[in-house]
């Protein structure tokens, strides 16, 4: 455990949730009964499918299997005051990571080998923290919920396709909002904005060969230049058309938004407040929580 990092004991999702995510998630919570349907009826099927896929085609991380990655996960979970999920490493050429949690049982996280190959250990922990952010904010339930709605709409004749397209647009908009919150979770764990922005840079244009040569300061400057396009109506139109079919905001925009939040009083106060609470309530017990 890195003793220089603050443990955020008592951290709540709304303490760091991005305003756009809060607005979008609140809207989804207004749909009566659907949350329960996803958790109790459809979630168990998906959960069983993914479990069988992971256990048969991935490597499960533990204190005996890839213990360095296990240590990073435990530390990240403790910082966010969250019970650690199961972690699987899966052979895949597409750099990606994802989580699943619907039924209230132990959730899991999957990281692809191609993503690990381009990141440092600090950056891998940033990815873990981003995925933990999804769990902390309970994004998995609502993502599953809306995807089921899209599937149902597509089964309806005639106007069902139009509904599905509308809902798909809403899904992607909500997902992009949610990603900003998870980037904040990554920052709360790494407590170094350059680590998280380096992950975004490598996702934008990294490979095992060129990743060590990338210049983070140049990437941050690039992000600020991208944000400057907002000054023109044409630039805003281009950016809207570019992102409306994406599940994530473009990496440079995520880097710019993270840079802004890392410099905010809100972020600094969150670290200091939680640090004080941790020292007061748990310091005498050695600082560790039982999980």
Describe this entry's structure for a reader.
This protein is mainly α. Helix content is 64%, strand content 5%.
Quick structural gist:
The protein is mainly alpha-helical and 291 residues long.
Shape: globular
- State mean pLDDT (0 to 100 scale): 78
Indicate the proportion of strand residues: 5-15%
Low-confidence stretches: 276-291
> Helical stretch count?
13
Number of strands: 4
Level of helix content?
Answer: 55-70%
SS-derived structural category: mainly alpha
Task: Give keywords.
291 residues; mainly alpha; 4-stranded mixed beta sheet; 13 helices; 64% helix; disordered C terminus
What is the secondary structure topology, with strand pairs?
Layout: H1 13-16, H2 19-29, H3 34-57, E1 59-60, H4 67-79, E2 86-90, E3 97-100, E4 108-112, H5 113-116, H6 121-136, H7 139-154, H8 160-190, H9 193-205, H10 216-228, H11 233-243, H12 251-262, H13 265-282
Helix pairs in contact: 2-8, 3-7, 4-6, 6-8, 6-9, 7-8, 8-12, 9-12, 10-12
